[in-house]
Design goal:
The chain has about 675 residues and is α/β, with parallel strands linked by helices. The chain has 34 helices and twelve strands. The longest helix has 18 residues. The radius of gyration is 30 Å and the shape is elongated.
Length: about 675
């Protein structure tokens, strides 16, 4: 059990065909195990089992030679074996009748065969999670899986026998007693079931919530004064996006039973986005295949734009490899089959709500870390990270990845970089999330060529990722390679033209190319302020990196863009001042004075005094030792809205030598390199 929980097992995979074996092997991608290897037959794997070189066999009921799993279980368990081993089966619908015999012969778990590696991966991950919850009671795992089969087949008398046998072994396990209550009632022994339920209520008040569920779902009673999950966690608003009207109605009813006050249902992803983009939502249930806006695009809009602060449940039966990358990259809370039973959906929703509010497992704590970082609450993010360190089933590479997220938020870019290098080395799974964060880190460190090399590799693995394409476009733009930047944003817009973050990125690239018409088409009458601020910073970067004409042209384009608009009063003087600095740096005092005079027209701007001092220095023909404040503005973050610029205490001394490494990251609204000193 500990070996499974901690991932130290050697796993053998046997499929009924070569293609099935490949599918089953790929289901272990992302699951940490010491070794996973494929075999063609039970006969081939037997010596490895006997020698202790394989601990866990995951197989179909028949191998490639046609041999039967139950016969093999009889044979292997008839031999004296001094080390632990377990067997799990991938089961098709028409094979479920073999399960009772398989469990009688020692089967550990069964997993429905949906023909999709992603679904099997989720099922295996749930098995690992269950192992971590049973407190070392080894028989509880096969019991849970066998119980689920008996419930599925409504074999209530057999379930009564199973629960009674388990209680003989674990007489104080009240959860099993609750299962027995349901089995008694479903099997027609209502009196015995109700008597046992009253006994549990008396001796185990901590199970009040589960007891209330049994009363509601099994006995059809409506317990008074029962607090719903929604009331407990103060969640009110859920959104459902599903193609099937029956599914939407069923899930709406279920969420209302959970206590949600508002449940919005949509057939179209675009319609759902209009609500998700503007209103606080506590839970999202969505189909992967949607008309118009595909589930992949809706998920990325939600995750990049909403600070990751609510769980998402995806309903799907099949994923392409590229889609699996998106599911993994954006941390979906649950993946359920499209026609999941009401019971399975209920369990998934309950788990998501509990883990989003009172996380106890690695994935739930990880989501809380992202939520707090999205809200810039680094102190609480770190407290959740300390809680994550106490989870026994955590992945060491993920641990470094999460710490790097916190370091990046604190602007400890070098520390984050080294942690990510270690995480990539430790990781035995797909490292797209690690590589994407590394790209963001290198972007902040100014290693634009490193960013390009890294992102090109990630793009091949996950070509549908808006986040990857957006960062790649920004890296190209900062290097001055605007043609490639434009090509990348066009690729992203072809995937989802309505994604706000990529439209803003596209507008910046087109402004840098002096393509005003294209930029306005990208923005579609949206607020230009964040784009103008970030483009101002980009022009400053061009100037520092000796692309002076490109920087000057971008400043001029931005002035033309916002002149006369509602944001001109706050941003136009800043652009005029920076343009004056640029001309001053080139030695053109006349043009510098001209733009300083335009800047002085704006009476209430924070840069007016700086402009006045600079103009006076020109008139006195002095080389003054001036100090300039810079406006600090967050570089646009892919998980949160851009904030207003604020004055910081950072000072640039224009009369002294400043090392480039100290200046390259000062991307303020007012950008003051040693322009004045050189001009004088």
């Amino acid at each position: 059990m500990k070996l499974i929980e901690n991932g130290y097992l050697r796993v053998g995979v046997i499929g009924s065909s070569e293609s099935k074996k490949v599918q089953m092997l790929s289901a272990f991608d992302g699951l940490k195990f010491q070794e996973v290897r494929g075999f063609s037959s039970f006969e081939e794997v037997e010596p490895f089992l006997l020698q202790g070189k394989i601990h866990w066999v995951f197989s179909t009921f028949k191998d490639e030679s046609g041999a039967f799993l139950c016969d093999f279980l009889d044979e292997i368990y008839s031999q004296p074996i001094g080390h632990p081993m377990v067997f799990s089966a991938l089961v098709q619908v028409n094979e479920t009748h073999f399960l009772p015999d398989a469990f009688a012969r020692g089967l550990f778990s069964w997993h429905p065969d949906k023909g999709v590696a992603e679904y099997s991966r989720q099922s295996l991950w749930r098995l690992k999670r269950k192992v971590g919850q049973v407190n070392g009671l080894a028989a509880m795992i096969p019991y849970m899986f066998y119980r689920s089969y008996l419930k599925q087949k409504s074999m209530w008398d057999e379930l009564v026998d199973l629960c009674e046998q388990m209680i003989r072994c674990y007489r104080y396990e009240d959860v099993i007693k609750l299962h027995l209550v349901e089995a008694y009632i479903r099997a027609g022994h209502g009196k015995k079931g109700k008597s046992l339920l009253r006994e549990i209520e008396y001796f185990e008040p901590s199970l009040a919530g589960q007891i209330a569920e049994v009363r509601r779902n099994v006995l059809g009673e409506e317990p008074s004064k029962t607090e719903s999950l929604a009331q407990r966690y103060q969640v009110k608003h859920a959104v459902i996006v599903q193609s099937s009207l029956d599914q939407r109605n069923s899930h709406r009813e279920m969420l209302q039973e959970f206590g949600f006050e508002r449940v919005d249902c949509f057939e179209s992803g675009e319609d759902a986005w209009r609500v998700l983009a503007k209103e606080k939502v506590d839970l999202l249930l969505m189909d992967w295949k949607l008309e118009g806006l595909h589930g992949s695009c809706l998920l990325q809009r939600v995750k990049i734009s909403s600070a990751w602060d609510f769980p998402v449940i995806v309903y799907a039966d099949r994923f392409r490899e590229q889609e699996s990358q998106i599911i993994n990259q954006y941390s979906v809370a649950q993946v359920l089959p499209t026609k999941a039973s009401r019971h399975l959906s209920s369990m998934g929703i309950s788990w998501c709500l509990v883990q989003s509010k009172e996380p106890t497992e690695a994935l739930g704590i990880e989501s809380k870390i992202f939520e707090r970082l999205g809200k810039k609450d680094i102190a609480r993010a770190y407290r959740y990270f300390e809680k994550y360190l106490k989870v026994s089933s955590r992945d060491p590479s993920k641990e470094k990845y999460l710490k790097a997220q916190i370091d990046l938020a604190e602007r400890n870019y070098l520390d984050a970089k080294y942690l990510l290098m270690e995480a990539n080395f430790d990781s035995k799974v797909n490292s797209i999330k690690i590589d994407t964060l590394m790209a963001r880190c290198l972007l902040e460190l100014g290693d634009f060529q490193g960013v390009l090399n890294l992102l090109k590799r990630i793009k091949k693995k996950s070509p549908q990722s808006i986040l990857v394409l957006g960062i790649l476009a920004k890296a190209y733009a900062r290097l001055g390679d605007l043609e490639n930047a434009a090509q990348v944003v066009d690729e992203a817009l072809a995937i989802d033209r309505g994604h706000p973050w990529i439209r803003h990125t596209a507008a910046k690239v087109h402004l840098a190319l002096d393509e005003m018409k294209a930029a306005k088409s990208d923005m579609e009458d949206e607020d230009w302020e964040p784009v103008t601020k970030d483009s101002n910073n980009l022009a400053s970067v061009y100037f520092e990196n000796k692309m002076q004409e490109r920087g000057i042209n971008l400043f001029k384009t931005l002035i033309d863009l916002i002149h006369g608009s509602k944001i001109a009063a706050s941003l136009e003087p800043v652009l005029l001042y920076n343009l004056a600095l640029s001309y001053s740096f080139q030695g053109d005092r006349e043009l510098a004075k001209k733009h300083l005079e335009k800047c002085l027209v704006f009476k209430n701007s924070l840069v007016v005094e700086l402009a006045r001092e600079m103009k006076q220095a020109f008139e006195d023909e002095k080389s003054p030792d001036l100090f300039f404040y810079t406006f600090a503005i967050e570089d646009e973050h892919p998980y949160q809205e851009l904030e207003e610029g604020q004055v910081t205490g950072e000072i640039l001394n224009t009369g002294t030598e400043i090392d480039l490494d100290d200046r390259v990251f000062l991307r303020g609204l007012v950008h003051a390199p040693r322009a004045l000193g050189k001009a004088s």
